[in-house]
Amino acid sequence: MADDTGTVDAVVIGAGFSGLYMLHKLRNQMGLTVRVFEAGGGVGGTWYWNRYPGARSDSDSYVYGFTFDEELWREWEWSERYPEQHEIRAYLEHVADRFDLTRSITFDTRVTGATFDEAANTWTVTTDTGETVVTRYVITAVGALSSSNTPPFPGIDSFAGETFHTGLWPHEGVDFTGKRVGIIGTGASAVQAIPLIAKEASDLTVFQRTANYIIPANNGPVPDEVKKARLDDYEGIRERIQNSYFGFELNLLESNAADATDEEIYETLKPRWDEGGFGIWLGSYVDIFFDDDANAKVRNFLHDRIREKVQDPATAELLTPKGYPFGVKRNPLDSGYFETFNEPHVHLVDVKSDPIAEITPTGVRLESGAEFAFDAIVYATGFDAMTGPMNKIDIRGRGGELLRDKWVEGPRTYLGLTSAGFPNLFTITGPQSPSVLSNMPVSIEQHVDLVARIIGDLRERAAATIEPTREAEDAWVQHCQDVVAPTLFQQADTWYMGANIPGKPRVFMPNLDFVGPYRAKCDEVVANDYEGFTITREGASA
pTM for the complete prediction? Predict the structure, then answer.
């Protein structure tokens, strides 16, 4: 049962990793009154909704959790290297129980609006259940990948069979036994789901627009000696991931792919390929992010691995990525993805050369006229990432300015944390912070700790509001673009760029400073008396 009050110190939107830790910091450690609103029926955030077959973390389990509490970190034992959705959700339920969080969370309730009152320096938050809450601080913990996207295919509502979206999977599960299934999309969710759906379906057709670079997960139980070594090194692990490039214990090589022979490339990358995980992406050559010729050497290595796994040369060619560099998209981890296409009942259809024209009552028709009949269609078509979840909420700041109008040409923030004209509004791992280019729990903890520190300092000063200056915001927006400009990231149509959503501005949305340097930048801002921010008392500058 949630705390029953119409006025609180803080409202937190979302009860995933971010919302749970934010609630713990503000309520349990700082003594504030807090309401958390969660659209789902339980805690978990993305792990509450994403229950498709094979859904699991692509971060090693020992770093895919909270490290703020050593006892919590030690007491929870993961069963595998990459935990499945149900285990991550169970972990977050354990966290909620351990810290007595659920009494401050209102479930099955979606925040629809938040309006800033300039006279009172408060926010009025409204929900789809008709509740209204007045608060000093609003913290959005809505996640970067929580607004599912289904392309507006003509006839999409006419299909007579079952339809599913990987991001909104039925909680009771789906049995595809004996069914003809079509799956549209080959991103990270599809890569995990396809091998398992193929084991049930009598016939599976995969519609691929863009082939992905996919790395083996090499998932399985973690050896006992590895578990023990990690338990003995809690402080070291915590320090290393907090000051790392990407929130993992992975370091880029000092040597360059451009200077390496093909044999040296193989000798460097093959052990990383065999080990599985992101080492081949985030723990190899740094110049592959800047030099296309260097990147091509790694691409050639990966193309050879696809040909080794896929028996049919034509299918292997279709599954071989073309036209963009390796590493500039989120690299899915697979468990048998390529091998699935060796099964006689699994078919791959290229919808880049022959796009989907419409969804019909019986299945899918392509522009060429080719038709496919299905009993079920799965949309693995991703999300309106990063800005999408924020833009779904009617957030109005000073002068009634609507946040999504301000962001119409791309996100505008300072540190990816705040936005000018929206006082006391904080975004956890939002656009223009490292967020999706990091192991999320590491960045979440850093942001939550930072927001809690800011709020604590404001209360000590008896200050009413904090918000960035327009100048600081402009400089940060420009900085985020300047950092990515020399890289290859903007050469691919990715959800990092908003390219998967028609009409969405093509702007690189994450921050590419890396986890450790970004943390240092935030600490420097605080140490310099909140450089770039304006802090006010009631109606006066502090």
Answer: 0.94
